[in-house]
Amino acid sequence: EVQLQASGGGLVQAGGSLRLSCEVFGITFDEYAIGWFRQVPGKEREGVSCINDSDGATYYADFTKGRVEVSSDAAKNMVYLHLNRLTPEDTARYYCAAGYPRLCAYYNRDSSVRPFAYEYDYWGQGTLVTVSS
After folding, report:
1. What is the 3-state secondary structure (H, E, C) of the chain?
2. At residue 86, what are phi and psi to the nearest 5 degrees?
3. What phi and psi values does residue 67 have, to the nearest 5 degrees?
4. Phi/psi zone of residue 56: left (φ > 0), alpha (ψ -120 to 50 degrees), beta?
5. Is residue 111's pLDDT more than 90?
6. Mean of the pLDDT values across residues 33-50?
7. CA distances in angstroms from 45 to 4, 56, 98, 118, listed in the order given
8. Cβ count near 1 (within 10 Å)
């Protein structure tokens, strides 16, 4: 059974940092890309980042502006999303998801392409990040 469990969210002041974790069960990192999305109530789920171990590709949405870093530890079945210099606009529930392994490279190929939730097969339950001003 494939499961993804996101954790690490919480309340942080503007300018602070958080490390989100995604523990992955039932798949290997060379079979799937792991993406991070975020969502606020009433809005579409928004792609933040993506990582794929099989080709080493990583992707970051433009709005992250160098404040985000994604990493993985295949031995621990963990993917991490480091969020830095957080602003209140980063307040959202953050989700990790598993999808086709070439997705990250695909997003990088064309700046007009962005991640969509339907491209991912498996989802975690999300972890809430709240940034106070």
Report:
1. CCEEEEECCEEEECCCCEEEEEEEECCCCCCCEEEEEEECCCCCCEEEEEEECCCCEEEECHHHCCCEEEEEEHHHCEEEEEECCCCHHHCEEEEEEEECCCHHHHHHHCCCCCCCHHHEEEECCCEEEEEEC
2. -70, 145
3. -95, -5
4. left
5. no
6. 97
7. 17, 25, 15, 10
8. 5
Using CA atoms, how far apart are residues 26 and 32, in angstroms rounded to an integer?
11
The radius of gyration computed from the CA coordinates of the chain, to the nearest angstrom, equals 14
> Which residues are CB-neighbours of 24 under 8 A, at least 6 positions away?
3, 4, 34, 77, 78, 79, 96, 98
pLDDT in tens, 52-83: 988 889 999 999 989 999 999 999 999 999 99
The 10 Å Cβ neighbour count of residue 77 is: 16
The DSSP bridge partners found for residue 49 are 36, 60
